[in-house]
């Protein structure tokens, strides 16, 4: 491999691993928070109502994550512009 | 998922990197680290703000507008707390002579 393809391979691998890590983290949080919301009292088997709640909750949690992430990034940019993070 | 690229970079390959590519890599990795930091903070904030803002039962798969506003305010105020703590800590440190 030449220098350029080594560089590209490393970048690809690093991004791939970060994305895997990020989606694992998201799934873990969805399980925690949607279990809490949708299964208030665990019964002997999961009901169809609970399943619907879980899938709705999952999509809603992802929407919440995106909303939070966008708000956070906007604020970081604002603080950078204000010079709050003086180096 | 394409895993064929995995483990294809050896130590010998890394030694083959030109100085320019090393510098490029350093820059890309630094940006990547920043992106990861923001993403992991977003996981923390979503967890905290979900608990504060999504209080009723789940009736749909979308956020309603009041939930959206609550989430945004929650993030903003959490960051205010963060900044206030940091600033106050700096002030306390100064007051106590480092």
From TrEMBL, chain A:
Domain of life, source organism: Eukaryota
Keywords: Chaperone, Disulfide bond, Membrane, Metal-binding, Mitochondrion, Mitochondrion inner membrane, Protein transport, Translocation, Transport, Zinc
Membrane topology, as annotated: Peripheral membrane protein
Claim: Membrane is one of the keywords in the record: yes
Quaternary structure (record): Heterohexamer; composed of 3 copies of TIM8 and 3 copies of TIM13, named soluble 70 kDa complex. Associates with the TIM22 complex, whose core is composed of TIM22 and TIM54. Interacts with the transmembrane regions of multi-pass transmembrane proteins in transit.
GO MF annotation: an example: metal ion binding
Gene3D superfamilies in the cross-refs: Mitochondrial import inner membrane translocase subunit tim13 like domains
Similarity annotation: Belongs to the small Tim family.
Pfam families the record matches: zf-Tim10_DDP
Domain commentary: The twin CX3C motif contains 4 conserved Cys residues that form 2 disulfide bonds in the mitochondrial intermembrane space.
Protein name according to UniProt: Mitochondrial import inner membrane translocase subunit
Subcellular location: Mitochondrion inner membrane
Alphabetized InterPro entries for the sequence: Tim10-like, Tim10-like_dom_sf
All residue ranges annotated as the Tim10-like domain in the record: 13-73
Keyword field contains ATP-binding: no
Known function: Mitochondrial intermembrane chaperone that participates in the import and insertion of some multi-pass transmembrane proteins into the mitochondrial inner membrane. Also required for the transfer of beta-barrel precursors from the TOM complex to the sorting and assembly machinery (SAM complex) of the outer membrane. Acts as a chaperone-like protein that protects the hydrophobic precursors from aggregation and guide them through the mitochondrial intermembrane space.
One cellular component (GO) term of this entry: mitochondrial inner membrane
BP term (GO), one: protein transport
TrEMBL record, chain B:
Main location: mitochondrion
GO biological process: protein transport
Keywords: Chaperone, Disulfide bond, Membrane, Mitochondrion, Mitochondrion inner membrane, Protein transport, Translocation, Transport
Membrane protein topology class: Peripheral membrane protein
Cellular component GO terms held in the UniProt record: mitochondrial inner membrane
Pfam family, any one: zf-Tim10_DDP
Localisation: Mitochondrion inner membrane
Domain Tim10-like: 28-90
Subunit relationships: Heterohexamer.
Similarity comment text for this entry: Belongs to the small Tim family.
UniProt domain comment: The twin CX3C motif contains 4 conserved Cys residues that form 2 disulfide bonds in the mitochondrial intermembrane space.
Main function: Mitochondrial intermembrane chaperone that participates in the import and insertion of some multi-pass transmembrane proteins into the mitochondrial inner membrane. Also required for the transfer of beta-barrel precursors from the TOM complex to the sorting and assembly machinery (SAM complex) of the outer membrane. Acts as a chaperone-like protein that protects the hydrophobic precursors from aggregation and guide them through the mitochondrial intermembrane space.
Protein name stated in the entry: Mitochondrial import inner membrane translocase subunit
């Amino acid at each position: 491999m030449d220098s350029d393809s080594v560089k590209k391979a490393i970048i690809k691998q690093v991004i791939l691993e970060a994305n895997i890590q990020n989606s694992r983290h998201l799934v873990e949080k969805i399980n925690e928070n949607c279990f809490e919301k949708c299964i208030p009292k665990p019964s002997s088997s999961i009901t169809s109502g609970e399943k619907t709640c879980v899938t709705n909750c999952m999509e809603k949690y992802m929407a919440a994550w995106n909303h939070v992430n966008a708000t956070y990034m906007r604020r970081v940019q604002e603080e950078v512009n204000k010079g709050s993070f003086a180096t | 998922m394409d895993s064929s690229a995995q483990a294809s970079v050896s130590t010998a390959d890394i030694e083959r990197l030109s100085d320019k590519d090393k510098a490029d890599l350093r820059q890309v990795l630094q940006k990547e680290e920043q992106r990861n930091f923001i993403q992991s903070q977003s996981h923390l904030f979503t967890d905290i703000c979900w608990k504060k803002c999504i209080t009723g039962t789940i009736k749909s798969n979308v956020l309603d507008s009041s939930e959206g506003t609550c989430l945004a305010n929650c993030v903003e105020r959490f960051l205010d707390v963060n900044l206030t703590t940091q600033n106050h800590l700096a002030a306390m440190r100064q007051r106590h002579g480092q």
